[in-house]
Amino acid sequence: MTEKEKRDIIWASGHFLGEYFPEDFDTWTDDKLEQFCEDHAWEPLEGAVGEWLVEEIHNLAWSVREYINVQKK
């Protein structure tokens, strides 16, 4: 994962969670990351499965980066 991708994921986590991923999230196990998501899910998403939250965070980060890259062309 590049530093830019890491920053994008941290940014995107704030759209689904009440607390951003910490800087070292990329060293965590999948279980720890999913548990963090479940523990800090934004109120309308409380009860969502951690695996789904992680996937949605990554999808948003990827989508925004793609949009930025297209705008730069």
Distance between the termini: 23 Å
Largest β sheet strand count, sense and barrel closure? none
Total domain count: 1
Topology, number of strands? 0
Binned strand content = under 5%
Structural class: mainly alpha
Helical residue percent?
A: 55-70%
Radius of gyration: 12 Å
List the total number of helices.
Answer: 3
Sequence stretches where pLDDT stays below 50 over 5 or more residues: none
Could you give the order of the helices and strands? HHH
What would you say this structure looks like, in words?
This protein is an all-alpha fold. It has one domain (3-72). The protein is 60% helix and 0% strand. Helix 1 (3-13) packs across helix 3 and helix 2 packs across helix 3. The two termini are 23 Å apart.
Which terms would index this structure?
73 residues; globular; mainly alpha; 3 helices
Short structural summary:
The protein is built from three helices and no strands. The protein is mainly α and 73 residues long.
Walk me through the topology.
Elements: H1 3-13, H2 30-39, H3 50-72
Helix pairs in contact: 1-3, 2-3
